[in-house]
C-alpha cells in the first residue's frame, strides 16, 4: 500500500560520473531503518533526467531488492522522460523489476496542451498493470496540472498525483469531488511544507526531500501529526527552521552538503550539477550542529 513517508532518494556518482551503487544501497537502507516507508527512485532528487535509461532501470532493481529486506516498505519508480516512448519503456522495465508503482512528471521541453498531456499519461497507463501517478512540478515543467486535467487523468486510469506545487485549492478540489471519489484518487504531498494542514483534511502520504538527510525528524513529524497535534506543531517548527538554515544552492546540493554534515561521504552529483565541499567546510560544520540540535529537540519531545 502506498502510504506514509516517501524519500525522493538521491543518486550518488563517482568522480568519473558512474552511479555509485554501493552508496545508493547504504543510503536506501539507512533511510528505511530510520522510519521512511517508501523510496521514490530517479526523480528530481535522484537525477533521473541526467541518467541513461539503463542506469535508471538498474536502480529500480536495486531499490526493489532493498525494499524486500524491509517489511511493508515500497518503491515508486519515476519513469518520466521528455518523450513518451522512453517513459513507456521505463514503465515496463519498472514493472518487470517488481516495483509497487510508477510516477511520471509532466513531459517537458514544450508547452503541451491538456490533450497532449493526457495522451502521454494514457500511453503510460496502457503499458502498466501497477498504479501510475502523475507528477506535478510546474517549477520545472512550467505546466501546472489543473483540477480539470486531474479529472481527465483519473478517467484515463491514473491512480493519483504526486504534487510539489503546494496548491491547497487543488487538494481540496480533489478530495471533495464526486468525480474523483468514485475511484479513490490518491493525492501525495510532495513536500513537508504545509503538511499539518494537508494531514488535517485527509492526506496520508508525503514525499519529503529532507528524508535524504534527517529521515528520523520527518518520521516524527508524520507520526505526531496523527497522534499528538502539539508535538506535531513543535516538530513542524523544527523542520521549517532547519530547512531554511541549510539551503546551499539547489535541493540536490543542499542534500549532499547535509549528508556530508552527518558524516556520510555522498561523493558527487552528475554534471552539469556540481557539489563543492572544500569551500564549504565552515558551512558543513554549521549544518552539522543545526542537525544535531534539531534531532535533540525532536527526541526530547
Structural notes for this entry:
This protein is an alpha/beta fold. It is 50% helix and 11% strand. Helix 4 (114-126) links the parallel strand 4 (101-105) and strand 5 (132-136). Helix 3 (84-97) runs parallel beside helix 4 (114-126), helix 4 (114-126) runs parallel beside helix 6 and helix 12 (251-261) crosses helix 13 (281-299). The protein is globular, with a radius of gyration of 18 Å. The model has no long low-confidence stretch (mean pLDDT 94).
Distance between the termini: 30 Å
Mean pLDDT, all residues = 94
Question: Would you list the SSEs in sequence order as H and E?
Answer: EHEHEHEHEHHEHHEHEHHHH
* Unreliable runs: none
Counted beta strands: 8
Helix-and-strand structural type: alpha/beta
Helix content: 40-55%
Give the biggest sheet. Answer: 8 strands, parallel
What gyration radius follows from the Cα positions, in whole Å?
Answer: 18 Å
Number of helices: 13
Beta percentage is: 5-15%
Q: Given the C-alpha coordinates, what overall shape results?
A: globular
Spatial sequence of strands, sheet with the most strands: 7-6-5-4-3-2-1-8
